[in-house]
């Protein structure tokens, strides 16, 4: 692979920092940006990895040349965020469950 895959993370709370650490160990991956509704959480994770923080997923998708976005938000938001990422033409990583209610799918 000639270039590193450029990753973004949405959700900087519980699991986001663990995923960021995993990306840091991969030679073909580069964390580029993180997003969280909580600006302090986004800033803290961004500072640790020297990346750009966002409080809005769409803004991150618009501004950043990402290849993959890792959805680390609470379970009830996975489907919404994963679909938004896919509509932007990027690959998405999402932990299960993709949705938490049968009615929503």
Key features?
105 residues, alpha/beta, five-stranded parallel sheet, globular
What's the helix and strand layout?
Blueprint: E1 5-10, H1 16-25, E2 29-35, H2 39-49, E3 52-54, H3 57-63, E4 68-71, H4 78-87, E5 91-94
Give a verbal description of the structure.
This protein has 105 residues and is of the alpha/beta class. 36% of the residues lie in helices and 23% in strands. It has a five-stranded parallel beta sheet, with helices on both faces. Helix 2 (39-49) links the parallel strand 2 (29-35) and strand 3. The N and C termini lie far apart (37 Å).
Structural class: alpha/beta
Distance between the termini: 37 Å
pLDDT < 50 runs, ≥5 residues: none
- Share of helical residues: 25-40%
Largest sheet: 5 strands, parallel
- Backbone shape: globular
Please tally the β strands and state the result: 5
Count of discrete alpha- or pi-helical segments spanning 4 or more residues: 4
Order of helices and strands: EHEHEHEHE
Strand order of the largest sheet: 3-2-1-4-5
pLDDT average, as an integer? 93
User: What Rg do the Cα atoms give?
Assistant: 13 Å
């Amino acid at each position: 692979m000639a270039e590193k895959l450029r990753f973004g993370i949405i959700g900087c709370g519980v699991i986001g920092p663990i995923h960021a650490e995993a990306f840091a160990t991969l030679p073909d991956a580069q964390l580029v940006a993180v997003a969280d509704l909580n600006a302090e959480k986004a800033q803290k994770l961004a500072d640790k990895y020297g990346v750009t923080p966002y409080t809005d997923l769409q803004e991150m998708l618009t501004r950043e040349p990402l290849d993959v976005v890792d959805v680390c938000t609470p379970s009830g938001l996975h489907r919404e965020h994963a679909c938004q990422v896919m509509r932007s033409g990027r690959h998405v990583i999402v932990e299960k469950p993709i949705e938490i209610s049968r009615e929503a799918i």
